[in-house]
Records
---
Amino acid sequence: MAEYLIAGNWKMNGLRTELVEAEKTAAEEIADNCSVLICPPAVLLPQMTALLDGSKVRLGAQDCHPEDSGAFTGDISAPMLAESGASYVIVGHSERRLSYRESNNLVRRKMQAAWRAGLTAILCVGETETERNSGHAHAVVGQQFAECAPEDSTADKLVIAYEPVWAIGTGRSASGEEIADMHGFLREEASRHFGPGQEIPILYGGSVKGDNAAEIFSIADVNGALVGGASLRAADFIRIIRSVPVAQA
Ligand code: PGA
């Protein structure tokens, strides 16, 4: 797999008229050591699948239900997302943890549903500002990781996204030291739980932009980014994609 994954999370943004932004991203030449993923609102997946056919850009969804089907009004299951062209799904985003009170146990069941459908799960973890200021960042993130990631997690079906809640959508990214510290911690936790051979990709998310991406990608144990706001405009997103370090020959 490519060494860097750049994933754009459009959240509840994007109408059909804005698909041109995905088209522009798909036209960009993407380096061999980089994978690009766009996670649009689920209703756009079928159309984007057709639009991105033949391009290197892959598609993901922003959430899934833990069951494969049933009487769950308004929800969307992992098999439906896979059928609509998604190969990834984000689970446990802090906006869902906070707005819909999603528990670690629910997030874990969503991951298992994603895997049953053949999707790679992007598991979001991250502490609030209060948790960081009281010295509990590692404890919170470690617990989220341990309780959400199933025992049979492997590098080909799990991506971790460290997203400090206080850095999301605020324009205030975590510092290089904070990112290095938490990614190193998550790398250790992943190898403690699943064995040192599992090089599970760890993305950073929270106010990643064209002008801080290169610095973030140079930090040890950062394997890419989960990008919100700056993924909505192709020009901004492409700047981030171009910030991926050139592969060593
Ligand atoms: P942001 O969002 O890039 O707008 O901070 C990141 C995310 O929520 O994944």
Note: The longest strand covers residues 4-9.
---
Amino acid sequence: MSPVLNFGAGPATLPVPVVEQAAAELGRRSRDGITIMEASHRGLDFSAVAEKAEADLRLLLGVPETHRVLFLQGGATAQFAGVPLNLAPEGASADHVVSGHWSRRAADEAARFCTVNVAADGAGSGYRSVPDPATWRRSPEAAYLAYCANDTIHGVEFHRPPDPGGPPLVADMSSTLLSRPLEVDRFGVIYAGAQKNLGPAGVTVVIVHTELLGRSGRAIPSVLDYRAMADSGSMLNTPPTFAWYVSGLVLAWLIAEGGLEEMESRNRRKQALLYDAIDGSSLYSNAVEPAWRSWMNVPFRLADPDLDAVFRDEASAAGLVGLEGHRSVGGMRASLYNAVPETAVRTLVEFMSDFERRHG
Ligand code: PMP
């Protein structure tokens, strides 16, 4: 096992057995004499990989028959445009809740394709919380309500999905999907780039209610068109076969490890360890209100910003990497995705406490 503990926000650490299995399988050629990385997406070998990945994702999340699962490209950023194009008819409006960097980006991109009503914006509180849903300024005609379930940069997480009322609920779950069980039937659309909790960068999962396929009646680039992609088994064009394959290994690993209830209890313990350490120290701080603190991405600051570089260098020398905060906010951030073991979080907490003794 690698001695380095990677707390990066994404692309992020993968389960060690998955990396080892992928490495071993890439060295093994199939009966055709080719590896999975070289196989046609329309061949039998890759079809089996693709079908198993979808079946395992459906099993883990309990995806109902009412919803289609798509494996697309373009990251979550493509879905910032894909959602309004698929769901909002020409001239329609959409409600967006802004709870950090990524939901702001989603709202700005959607505004290029429909009228965006920002129903609530956590910027007023410096993204330390999200305004109470009772105060959200909803528009009666909205085609959907969009929010980001976990803001990877500000570390703000919805621990329960909001109630959309009438229109479908759309969630960017890039950095929280598969971290705990989910009631998929509450959502019209869920999307997530793989490179945090699911696999390597390159594939984006979209889970969409069949009623929403073709909903907008608009001309949509085919690769963003949920109906065209559902009709073609996500193979209207060449899919990202390698990322899809490795994601399949991660999904099988999640099932073998006990599924999403088990991930929830592990992730609950991991975040508690780190937040307790931060709250119990006088050197580190996290500004997010406890009810909104992310389990997956924990940003924190040092009381003396001059120590940031020292912290990073010493952490890196101790084998703890990927701890720098996003360039837009600075400070530190530890991402605690499923593949980060509890022992790694303990090592981080011990390092932080030792650092505070020496520099605090
Ligand atoms: N949404 C969230 C919550 C993210 O964390 C990210 C990437 N860090 C994005 C959207 C953008 O994803 P991508 O880079 O895959 O387009």
Note: The longest helix spans residues 259-279.
